[in-house]
C-alpha cells in the first residue's frame, strides 16, 4: 500500500502540475497578462508547485531531510537528468542575452543556498530574504525584457504559453482547471511525502536520501514533461529556460517559503555533499551553455552519466549510514 501511495502521489503531482499550468495560463491570457509574465510567474511557479507543496508538507511533518533534499535533489535532477535527456534527444539551444542574466542569477542562488546551508539552520529571516530576492528577480526580468525587441521577448515563455492553453478555454474554465490542478498537487504531495517517510523507515535509510532521489525526481516530473516535449518539438530554448527558471524558483521560492512556514535544521549529508553537487552542476550547466551557445547531444549524455554516478554515490551513502534512518 505504501508503494501504491507513492505511485499515486507521483501520478497526481504530474497530472495536477499540468492542469495547474494550463488553467493558470488560460486565466492569465484572458486577463490580458503578457506572455512574458505568464512564463516568469504562472508557468514557473506552476511547474514548481509539486516541489513547493512536497517540501512544505515534509517540513511540517518534521522531515527536514525530505524538505531540503527535495529542493537540492530537484535542482540536481533538473540539470543532470532532465536537461540531459532533453539534450540527448535534441541539442538544446541557448540565447546569449538571457543566459548572461539568468545564468548569473542561477549561480547566485546556488551560492546563497550553499552559504545558508553551511550555517546549519535556515530560519524565517532567511526564508523572507530568499522570497524577497525572488520577487526582485521577477521585477528585474520584467523591466529588462520590456526594453528588448519583440523577437527577444523570451521566445521560450511565448511557446510555453501557447502550448499550455487548450483551445477555447475561457476564464471560468481556466479557474476550474487551475483549482483542480492545485487540489491534485496538494493531495499528491501528501501521498508522496507520507509514502516516502514510510519507505525510509522500512528500508532503514535516511529521509535525506529519499528526499534527494525519489521525492526530488517525482516532484520534477512537470519539468521533465515540459523539457522533453520541447526538445522533441525542436524548441530547445524552452527546455533550457524551463530548467534554469525552475532551479531559481526552487532555491529562492520553495526553500524560502518552506523556511517561512517551518524553519529547517540542515541535514549533515546535504551540508557536506549534496549542496556542493548542486553548486557544481549549476556551474557545469553555465559552462556548457556559454562555450557553444547550446547543450549538445554529447554534453547531454555526459550530464546523464554524471546523474547515474550521483545516484550510485547516494546508494552507497545509504548503505553505509543506516543509523540515520527516520525515527519511528
What's the short version?
With 328 residues, the chain is mainly alpha-helical.
Describe the structure.
It is a single chain. It is built from twelve helices and four strands; from the N terminus they run H-H-H-E-H-E-H-H-H-H-H-H-E-H-E-H. The protein is globular and about 50 Å long. Helix 2 crosses helix 6. The protein is mainly alpha-helical. Strands 1-4 form a two-stranded antiparallel sheet. Strands 2-3 form a two-stranded antiparallel sheet. It is 82% helix and 2% strand. The chain has a single domain, classed as Up-down Bundle (A middle domain of Talin 1), CATH 1.20.1420.30. Mean pLDDT is 80; it is low at 149-166 and 322-328. The chain has helices at residues 2-30, 35-60, 64-89, 96-118, 124-146, 155-164, 171-203, 207-219, 221-232, 236-261, 268-292, 297-320; strands at residues 92-93, 121-122, 264-265, 294-295. This is Calcium/sodium antiporter. Keywords: Membrane, Transmembrane, Transmembrane helix.
For the record, the CATH architecture stands as Up-down Bundle
Shape: globular
What percentage of amino acids are in beta strands?
under 5%
The CATH top-level class label: Mainly Alpha
| Low-pLDDT sequence parts | 149-166, 322-328
CATH superfamily: NCX, central ion-binding region
Instruction: Determine the structural class based on helices, strands and strand pairing.
Output: mainly alpha
Put simply, the count of helices is: 12
Order of helices and strands: HHHEHEHHHHHHEHEH
CATH topology-level fold name? A middle domain of Talin 1
Major sheet: size, sense and barrel closure? 2 strands, antiparallel
Mean pLDDT comes to 80
Return the domain count: 1
Distance between the termini: 18 Å
GO molecular function: calcium channel activity; calcium, potassium:sodium antiporter activity
Domain Sodium/calcium exchanger membrane region: 3-142, 175-315
Main location: membrane
Membrane topology: Multi-pass membrane protein
